[in-house]
């Protein structure tokens, strides 16, 4: 009789947004990389600051590009940077809200070293009411000698019915 | 169209992600990936990185097919890619087709479009520049 209408908060699991409020990149990476595309890539948390996040993409034989060359494909770097950028935006806003990539540019300045993890570091340098702007780099151990540079724009996804 | 034996030239990354040749269209390969966990971002949607990987793979496939037609041999190296995300990728098969805008001696410029059920409503597009290096010995 009305028992199940509304359980008090302590009897239900916190929703994802509750868990992640006061956004913690390490915790969030563990959450996201437990499944889906990020899980398949094996992305790991590396480091973060107030407005930036760095993730690690461990070396994997089955993520190589052209046959006969021992070079990581470019696709995984794009995924790594997309994920690190989303994290940087949530970190800069200090909350988890729905965002979607609008535009992402990657310049591949040199091949990554064989056997090395690639680290993707992205910084959110501007947030407006509707958009978030990021720039970043990927490196394989020395951030002073990047393998790629990126620039991207994400849109905040407005809650239904409101802009 | 001539079936060029270049499909084994799909990168290990592309094979691992589940990308495969869907069909040929006017001599260009349409690549496809079906929706499963390896491409999933937020629940029931494509991860932007997976969509980007499909676009990039279709771009390379178009270039390899054209180089094979011209009997040219080259090592392909990425210079850059710019991806525009136009609509959320839903939980169904995605397709992509690359078009070579310019094929030079050292580099190629390729535009790529990805779509799901309705080809006239692309979910993402990309422009990419690829370096064509001399194969080393």
Automatic annotation (TrEMBL), chain B:
Occurrences of domain Thioesterase (ranges): 45-120
Tree of life domain: Bacteria
Protein name per the record: PaaI family thioesterase
Lineage of origin: Bacteria, Pseudomonadati, Pseudomonadota, Alphaproteobacteria, Sphingomonadales
Cited InterPro entries: HotDog_dom_sf (IPR029069), Thioestr_dom (IPR006683)
Secretion signal, residue range per the UniProt entry: none
């Amino acid at each position: 009789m009305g028992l199940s209408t509304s359980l008090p908060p302590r009897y239900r699991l916190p929703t994802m947004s509750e868990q992640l409020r006061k956004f913690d990149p390490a915790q969030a990476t563990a959450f996201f990389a437990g499944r889906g595309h990020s899980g398949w890539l094996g992305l790991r948390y590396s480091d973060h600051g107030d407005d930036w996040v760095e993730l690690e993409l461990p070396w994997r034989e089955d993520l190589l590009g052209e046959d006969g060359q021992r070079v990581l494909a470019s696709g995984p770097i794009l995924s790594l940077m997309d994920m690190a950028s989303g994290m940087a935006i949530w970190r800069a806003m200090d909350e988890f809200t729905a965002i979607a990539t609008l535009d992402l540019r990657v310049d591949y300045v040199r091949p990554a070293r064989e056997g090395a993890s690639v680290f993707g570091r992205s910084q959110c340098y501007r947030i407006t009411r509707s958009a978030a702007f990021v720039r970043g780099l990927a490196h394989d151990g020395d951030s002073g000698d990047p393998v790629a540079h990126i620039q991207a724009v994400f849109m905040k996804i407005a809650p239904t019915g409101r802009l | 169209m001539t079936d060029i034996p270049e499909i084994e030239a799909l990168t290990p990354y592309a094979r691992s992600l589940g990308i495969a040749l869907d069909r040929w269209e006017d001599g260009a390969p349409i690549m496809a990936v079906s929706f499963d966990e390896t491409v999933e971002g937020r629940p029931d949607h494509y991860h932007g990185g997976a969509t980007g990987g499909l676009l990039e793979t279709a771009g390379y496939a178009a270039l390899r097919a054209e180089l094979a037609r011209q009997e040219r041999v080259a090592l392909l190296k990425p210079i850059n890619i710019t991806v525009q995300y136009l609509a959320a990728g839903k939980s169904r098969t995605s397709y992509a087709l690359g078009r070579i805008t310019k094929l030079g001696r050292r580099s190629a410029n390729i535009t790529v479009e990805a779509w799901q059920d309705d080809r006239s409503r692309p979910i993402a597009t990309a422009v990419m520049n690829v370096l064509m290096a001399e194969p080393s010995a």
